[in-house]
Amino acid sequence: MSRPQWQRLARSRWAVPSLRTPLGASNRLPTARATFSTSVRRELMEMSGFTEEQLTVREAISHICSKFPNTYWQERDQQERDPKEFHASLAKDGWLGIALPESLGGAGLGISEATIMMQTITQSGAGMAGAQAIHANVYATQPLAKFGTKEQLETTIPNIINGTWRTCFGVTEPNTGLETLKLKTLATKADADDSYLVSGQKIWITCAQVASKMILLARTTPLEEVQKSSEGLSLFCIDLDRNQPGLDMRKIKKMGGRAVDANEVFFDNYKIPVNTLIGQEGQGFKIILHGMNAERCLLAGEALGLGYAALEKAAQYAKDRVVFGRPIGQNQGVSHPLADAYMKLEAAKHATYHATRLYDADSVPSHAIGVACNSAKYLAAEAAFTACERAVLAHGGMGYAMEYDVERYLRECLVPRIAPVSREMILNYVSEKVLDLPRSY
Ligand SMILES: Cc1cc2nc3c(=O)[nH]c(=O)nc-3n(C[C@H](O)[C@H](O)[C@H](O)COP(=O)(O)OP(=O)(O)OC[C@H]3O[C@@H](n4cnc5c(N)ncnc54)[C@H](O)[C@@H]3O)c2cc1C
């Protein structure tokens, strides 16, 4: 979908009144006001300062999400069933290509727009399950779009955008954890250099059960043979062909986001053609770094959406629930923690969209982008956790009931605290790279 097509689509379908209407004006977004499913009122989040394109994206995505009510996500979570209809709805209107180049059928927008898309998804009540069903298709395709060959791009990207293929991201390994540079999965040349044989194990690979493709980070030179551990890693875009020998996967039972699968993936001399290599052999770590900052921004947006969704539910419940002859929200012991959670979310929102602006700008030093994206992910994840926990507590016993959704949000909001990089590693990063303190590990 080209950019003009995308803009026409957004305008005509969702009737955004005027893209030139000043932000915060009262006549903005009437369509979404009617359709956004979880709102107490239209926006608890302050909407001033977003660009016209971000507002258009939010409007259109809200409309799609309104067809998937909380009961849909409750059932999917309980039954551990993939939300394939949701993925298909977004694909149908071209949203999976939001940040992919127009020349490849994408909308040619940036991570600023992709982040508000992901925030709108989680905030609609879809939570992390909704986000994770499409997340890798948006960010893991970034390095492919930038470094892939013409043939790779033309065969792969259109099929990911139109939803025929889903992709997953294969980085984490059980025995190396956050020490990515030590990862051991090995791809060795075979068949007179026509193919590689992959052996090793990945863990926590989201959507591997439903994906046709995996963006895989593997060693092409063993760790012992490289001078620097960042060398000898290569990135591939491979088929997940369950009929081929050497590939196995096992679902992990988990705490939240149960609608989407997370997996251990085992490779044992699994054959992949050489033309699955993205960019140059041995340059995989450098190639993937760009995508990692984008991923942090999307995760920050997802966390924010979850936090605002929880807070909206809590504020509504605190108004409705009467105990001791008055709404519980009249007690400052209930209202102040919610007000505090709101301010934390707003602060994290500014950090997040500041980071996306830097990421999308042309000439910002990579150090500044890295610090901003990591800080945003940290702050948004913490703010979301605060909001979700307080939302459960404000609901009292009902906070523990599936029907009120906030227990699901609390379970899910731990993901942005852990993945794709933990809070501790972001604190390590800022200590070292910003404060210039000695590396602690
Ligand atoms: C729901 C979910 C979905 C995921 N999806 C994907 C996916 O699709 N693809 C993928 O590749 N991965 C995925 N992951 C993996 C995720 O990125 C990792 O779990 C995460 O990077 C943490 O790695 P680890 O679990 O190995 O933690 P470990 O490295 O074992 O760390 C454990 C704990 O020790 C702390 N720690 C470790 N070293 C230090 C240190 N030097 N200083 C301070 N603290 C330290 C960490 O912060 C953490 O709290 C997913 C994880 C989850 C939970």
TrEMBL record:
Record-annotated Acyl-CoA oxidase/dehydrogenase middle domain positions: 168-269
Cofactor(s) the record lists: FAD
Annotated GO CC locations: plasma membrane
- Single annotated GO MF: flavin adenine dinucleotide binding
Which InterPro entries does the protein's record reference?
Acyl-CoA_Oxase/DH_mid-dom, Acyl-CoA_Oxase/DH_mid-dom_sf, AcylCo_DH-like_C, AcylCo_DH/oxidase_C, AcylCoA_DH/ox_N, AcylCoA_DH/ox_N_sf, AcylCoA_DH/oxidase_NM_dom_sf
User: Where's the Acyl-CoA dehydrogenase/oxidase C-terminal domain?
Assistant: 282-433
Q: Which residues form the Acyl-CoA dehydrogenase/oxidase N-terminal domain?
A: 51-163
- Keywords linked to the UniProt accession: FAD, Flavoprotein, Oxidoreductase
| UniProt similarity note | Belongs to the acyl-CoA dehydrogenase family.
Q: Which protein is depicted?
A: Acyl-CoA dehydrogenase
